[in-house]
Design brief:
The protein is mainly α. It has one domain. The protein is about 60% helix and about 0% strand. It has four helices and no strands.
């Protein structure tokens, strides 16, 4: 079994060049705008990824990873919202929100250190 933190065959080399770290970090950090702007968690990383994916391999990897995580979280939020009627969703929604913030912060710190981060519990759609 491979370590989920190490790059797989679809990821760029493990070290992120210093000049690419800023935009790669923004791919992760902009996902927090979803708490203020509806669908900002998908739109922010999507814009940076679409603009810079062909120029920077690090931004391509960070953008895809962030988008996959945000789309997975969107599915989780919809399921938790549907479960509000059973009162289970009232417990799940805050847990998902806390995990959202924690994993985005961890990803941002890892990218700042020059390491690609793979989010756990993520459906790889892109």
């Amino acid at each position: 079994m491979t370590d989920p933190m190490t790059p797989g065959p679809d990821l760029a080399p493990a070290e992120i060049p210093k000049e690419e770290r800023g935009l790669a970090m923004m791919c992760h950090l902009l996902s927090l705008t979803g708490f203020v702007i509806p669908f900002g968690n998908v739109i922010g990383p999507l814009v940076i990824w679409l603009v810079k994916k062909d120029v920077s391999p690090a931004v391509d990897v960070a953008g895809r990873e962030s988008l996959n995580f945000q789309l997975t979280l969107l599915i989780f939020y919809v399921i938790a919202f549907a479960l509000l009627f059973l009162a289970i969703g009232a417990c799940l929604l805050p847990v998902i929100a806390v995990l959202h913030v924690v994993f985005v912060i961890i990803a941002t710190i890892k990218v700042n250190d020059g390491v690609h981060y793979r989010y756990p519990m993520t459906i790889r759609m892109i």
